[in-house]
Write a structure and sequence with these properties.
single chain
Length: about 90
């Protein structure tokens, strides 16, 4: 693969990851959980209702899953609704 094709593939993967984070943010909003997409769209900050640091969520595994808590927690990226529910439970239990 030449450099321009490799660059295009990387751009497409980044765009796909951004879209997955946007979908997750919308699902979190729908269930009343506050989340903020970072300026460069590389991660989603999920805010706790009480004191504490937000949970940083990324898309990992070449777009295969959402990842948080230093990759200890994962959820398939093709299931934003389920990931939102898992994150809501995670921040409620933490």
């Amino acid at each position: 693969m030449n450099q321009s094709a490799a660059g295009l593939a990387a751009d497409v993967l980044h765009w796909d990851e951004e879209q997955k984070l946007v979908r997750l943010g919308l699902q979190l909003d729908a269930i009343g959980v506050d989340a903020t997409l970072r300026d460069n769209n590389s991660l989603l900050l999920v805010w706790r209702s009480g004191p504490g640091l937000p949970v940083a969520v990324t898309v990992a595994g070449q777009g295969a899953y959402y990842s948080w808590q230093e990759s200890e927690m994962r959820h398939p990226a093709d299931d934003a609704t389920g990931a939102a529910a898992a994150l809501a439970k995670y921040i409620a239990d933490a």
